[in-house]
Structure formats: C-alpha cells, structure tokens
Amino acid sequence: MAGEARSKVTNLIEEISIRDLGVIAEAKLQLGPGLTVLTGETGAGKTMVLTALGLLLGERSDSSAIRQGQEQAFVEGRWMVPNHTSAAEIVSAAGGQIDNGELIVNRTVARDGRNRSAVGGASAPVAVLASLGEKLVAVHGQSDQIRLKSAVAQREALDQFSGVAELLQNYREAFESWKSAQQRLQELKEASLTRETELQSLREAVDELDRLQPKVGEDVELSEKAQRLTHSEELRIAASEAHEMISSENDVDDAIAMVGKARRILESASAHDPELGKIAESLRELGFQLGENAALLSGYLASQEAGGASELELIQLRRAELTAVMRKYGPSLEEVISFHESATKRLLDLDSSDEQIEKLETEVDVIFAQVEDLAGQITAVRKHAALRLEQAVTEELKTLAMGGATLVVTVTESTDYQAHGVDQVSIQLAAYPGAEPRPIGKGASGGELSRIMLAIEVVLARTEQALTFIFDEVDAGVGGAAAIEVGRRLAQLAKVAQVIVVTHLGQVAAFANQHLRVLKTVGDQYTASDVVTLHGEDRVEEIARMLSGMAESDTSKASARELMVRASEFVNQ
C-alpha cells in the first residue's frame, strides 16, 4: 500500500554530493522516495547538509562556509524530473537537458565570492536554480521562507485543496473573452471620436472617383489620342497628298496607274522571256497593295473630317480631371483606382461602426454576466473549502503538541475582477484560544513553524501533487507521544511525497525509509564530518542514542527496536 502511494511521487532528489563545505570534506548522500531522516550529534554538520541543499536551490552563498584551507566548495544534486513539467521547461529554457528523466544541478562557491552553477549540463545564473527550486522543493525551517508565504501561494493552495480547477478554467476563459471584448469596444469608441472627420473626407473622395470612374491605362490612351487631334490638320494634309499620289481623282498619272502600265508592258514582253512574267506578277500584287492603302487613307481622311476640335476639348478636360485626382490620391492612375477600392470598403466599415459599438456593448454585458456568475461560484467553493482546511489543519495541530493553535483561512471578495477571480485568500494562525490571528511565520518559533507547515502540508498532500519537502527543527520542543505523532505525520506525507527531515528525536527517526547520520571526527589539527547510511544494528544504536543518550544500553536498544517495529507497521500500512 505504501509502495503504491509512493510510486506517485514524481520529482525526487536521488543523490547529493558535497565537497569542502564547512566541516564536510567529501560526502555523498543517497536519497530516495519516502521519508529520509538526517541525524547526528549537535555540531556534527547537519546544518552543512541543509546549506548544500540551499545552494542547489539558488540561495545566497557565503564564502565563510568553505572548508578551512580550501579555495572553493562544490555541491551537486541529481534529481529525477519527468518531461513536460514546469521544472523541465525551466531546464530547457536555460539550455540544459534532462537525460532519461535525470537532471544534474551543480554549484561551485569560490572564496573570492564568485559562483558558478550549471543546470542539465548548461551554465546558468543562480536565479535559474532558484526558479527551479520553487518547482521541486519546499523547505520549512526556522530561517527559511515558507512555501505559503505569499497571498498568491495561499490562494493557489486553497484552490488545489478545494478542487475548483475546472470551474476556475471556465472562469478564466470567460474572463479573457470579456477583457478582449472590452478592448475591442474601447478601440471602436476611441475611433468614433475621429471618425466623422475621416468619414467626410472619404465620402468626398469616393463621390469624386465614383463620378469619374477612372480605368486602368486610360491616361495613356487619352494622351495618345490628344496628340493625334492636336496635329490633325498636318496629318490630314499628309494623308491627302499620299492618297493623291497613290490614287488620284484628277487626270494625272498616279502610282496605281503607273504600276498598271508597267505591268502591262512586261506582260506583253513576257512571251519572249518568262522572267519578265514573274516581275509582271509581282507588279500585279503591288497594284493590289496600293489599292488597299489608298482605301485606308480614304477611311482615315473621312474620320478626320468633323468634330476634331470639340473632341480634343473633351479629351483635354478628361485628362485634367484625371491629373487632379492623381495629385490627390496617388501618383499613378493605378494607385488612384486602388485607393478608390480601399476607401469604399473603409467607408462601409465606418458607416457601420455605430452598429458595431451597440452590438459589442451587448456582447460585453453578456460575457460579464458569465464572468460574474462563475466568480460567485468560485467564491462559494473557496469559502466552503476554507472551513474544511481550517478544521483539518487544526486537528493535525492538536496531534503535534499545538492543541491550542487554530488555523484561520479567510476569503475576502472584492469588485476587482482578475484572472483568478475576485477573492483575496489569507492563511493565518491563532497561536492560542482568544489570540489575534497572525500571518504564518510571525509569532511562532522555528520548531512551531515547522510543525504548522507539516500540518498544512499533510492536509494539502491529500489533494495535490506534492514537492520534495525538507523540514528542519520540526521536532523542536516536542517529546513523548507528540514526537511519535510528528513522526507519523511525516511518514504519512512521505507516502505521496519525498520528505527529508533533520531531527534530534528517535521517535521521528524510527519512521524513516532512509536513515543518514552525520559523523564528526575531531583530530589534533582538523575537524571533519562524513555522512553514512545506517542499517540494521547501526540504526538501532543511533535511535537508542537519540532516545536516551546511551547507544550501548540494552534497555535503550530494546526501546529503539520496539519503536522501530511500531513505526514500520504504520509505514507499511
């Protein structure tokens, strides 16, 4: 059962390597799913393990933490991170890679203050580590910023607990449609202020061009025609003289007559030489061509006879009108025609804008009604969930030696519609009956804060995909039965998440799936710490030491074994 629950955990720290950090010369922590406890005597170096984790999560570095005699400290973490998650997106954006679900993150801190960090094999600023850490790990300790510090995080936690996701998605879609419609309406209204001026100008232009109806190439055609009419007399004389020369109406020898005479002379002589017959045939064809050209010239002269001057006047007037509109609307007639088409379309759009505004105003009102209704439903769900969350966490606090404390979750409505709705969510704690509720993290000791967050995380873990949780001093000021309950709650949380705990209590350590101990060695010239994984009798002795201070005592060992058996039964449920 426990293994089945634990299989749901996705993001896991599998291994942490530390070199030259504080009293730790070199250590490798093998981690895994479930609950991992870190134990050791005071001053052994447990803090350095948390410091190493903090460096991997983008926390500020301190060169004083570098091991004495060394120039730099190095930490590396190996995570299991599935693809297509927000954490994977951060890695990809930084240029790093996740290899078969494995992500390597490392950081080097130099004594001169310089930092180097890498994510998935790619160099990255420390800020990227911090962004990644927010998606992977939640740290709860006396000096740490708690996960639910911000109003946004508190609202998101309540939403996750309430199961409002589908309703919230419907709201967001309606909200975006409403905002988009509002923007379009605003643009139309702003445009209407200047629309009348534009309308007047466009109407004048379209009316003028509707009247003229210019055609493509018309200006070139009219220019050529005007050229002909301007020189019409000169052209008529030329055509007349040419016609007279080809086919004269007077009694003179014209070209047709002379060619005919030449043809006949050659024909009469061709009986003696066939070659002259061929030439005579060519002259016959020439005579035909001359006749056709004479007819063409006659037709040309006929077309030039009347109306030339009046036609030229009309053409010049048309050309003047076309030139005028080309100066106004485009350097070429093609551009004028294009402007005419676009202006006509724009005029139709502007003429219908009043209708559009009215229609869009109705649309905005309809969509807002949907937004308002969905926001109200979300508020109702949140308020109901707030009561359930209060009750559930308060019950958890009772088992963690904080029976007088009460969680207070308030949902306050506003008139300011946002993408998340209209609610402001606040999670506060009343430390004792009658106390004024205060923000989480204020008015509580480090140990109390860790227990508060443990209670909240245990409840939230029932409904959300949990992070890796790290608890420091969660057992401060707790003993006996309350300590066992702290261990139970940590083990319960560890069924759906990876949990790492620094503890001084054997009652907590007994529930661990992995037990790590920090050992300190003090020599004449040095102090060093190492991290070892405890199994079997070594673990029994460590828990016995934590329970009574006497690791070798048979009575202490027996108590440790009994506690471990009871804890194992709970873990394996």
Describe this structure in words.
- By secondary structure, the protein is an alpha/beta fold.
- The chain has two domains: 2-148 and 442-571, P-loop containing nucleotide triphosphate hydrolases (Rossmann fold, 3-Layer(aba) Sandwich); 213-351, no CATH class.
- 56% of the residues lie in helices and 18% in strands.
- The protein has 18 helices and 15 strands.
- It has helices at residues 2-6, 46-56, 86-93, 126-136, 151-162, 165-212, 218-230, 232-246, 255-269, 274-303, 308-329, 333-351, 353-399, 446-460, 480-494, 506-509, 536-548, 554-571, and strands spanning 12-21, 24-30, 35-39, 72-80, 102-110, 115-119, 122-123, 137-140, 406-418, 421-430, 438-439, 468-472, 499-502, 514-522, 527-533.
- The chain has a six-stranded antiparallel beta sheet with strand order 2-1-4-5-6-7, with helices on one face.
- A hairpin with a 2-residue loop joins strand 9 and strand 10.
- Helix 6 runs antiparallel to helix 13 and helix 7 packs antiparallel against helix 11.
- The N and C termini lie close together (6 Å).
- Mean pLDDT is 83; it is low at 1-7.
